[in-house]
Amino acid sequence: MPSIKEFQVTFDCAEPARVARFWCEVLGYVSSPPKGFATWDDYEQSRPAEDRGSWAACSDPSGVGPRLFFQRVPEGKVVKNRLHLDVRVGTGLVGEERLAALEAECARLLTVGAVRVRLLYDGHDSCIVMQDVEGNEFCVD
Questions:
Q1: C-alpha separations of 80 from 11, 104, 108, 137 in Å
Q2: pLDDT for the residue numbered 123
Q3: What span, in angstroms and rounded, lies between the C-alpha atoms of 101 and 126?
Q4: Distance of alpha carbon 60 from alpha carbon 30, whole angstroms
Q5: How many CB atoms lie within 10 A of CB 118?
Q6: What's the predicted TM-score (pTM) here?
Q7: Residue 113, CB half-sphere, CA atoms under 13 Å: how many?
Q8: What is the pLDDT of residue 43?
Q9: Sheet architecture: strand order including 8-13
Q10: What is the 8-class DSSP label of residue 6?
């Protein structure tokens, strides 16, 4: 069986466009409207009223990272995620230098709506557990 070369990560959420905007800010991704539409507004206006805002998507402009897909679901988040994203900003760094890089990214993400949950630091390795705008956990690593 050949290996899969492309995949997307799907988020269940209440407000797909809002969560997509957040992750675009976090990852430097772009949100482009579905094929055949100049804007997301054009696309949304073409849909029945009850289906508007039911999904959004964004992608890595370099084409390297996976597409992120956000779909509206009726139920809210109840427990800890079983899967989460690690935003890798401290790769190759250790100790205080790594911690400083993570703290700087954490400060930036707070300005776009993230919530800091806790710092995990053992004097050498570290990560910061955070939540997105709907409470989904992710790590600044």
A1: 14, 25, 24, 7
A2: 75
A3: 10
A4: 6
A5: 9
A6: 0.88
A7: 14
A8: 92
A9: 8-13, 67-72, 55-58
A10: -
**Residue 10 DSSP code:** E
Whether the CB-CB separation of 20 and 112 falls below 8 Å is answered with: no
Phi/psi for 113 (5° steps) reads 110, 0
Question: What is d(CA 81, CA 63) in angstroms, rounded to the nearest whole number?
Answer: 26
Among candidate residues 132, 139, 136, the one with its CA nearest the CA of residue 79: 136
Q: Please report the sign of the dihedral spanned by the C-alpha atoms of residue 74, residue 78, residue 84, residue 88.
A: positive
Low-confidence stretches of the chain (pLDDT beneath 70): 1
Token readout for 123 is 């004097």
**Ramachandran angles phi, psi of 138, nearest 5°:** -150, 165
Q: What is the mean pLDDT of the chain?
A: 92
The predicted-structure confidence for 27-62, as pLDDT tens digits, reads as follows 999 998 888 999 889 999 999 999 999 999 999 999
Report residue 46 as tokens. 């073409």
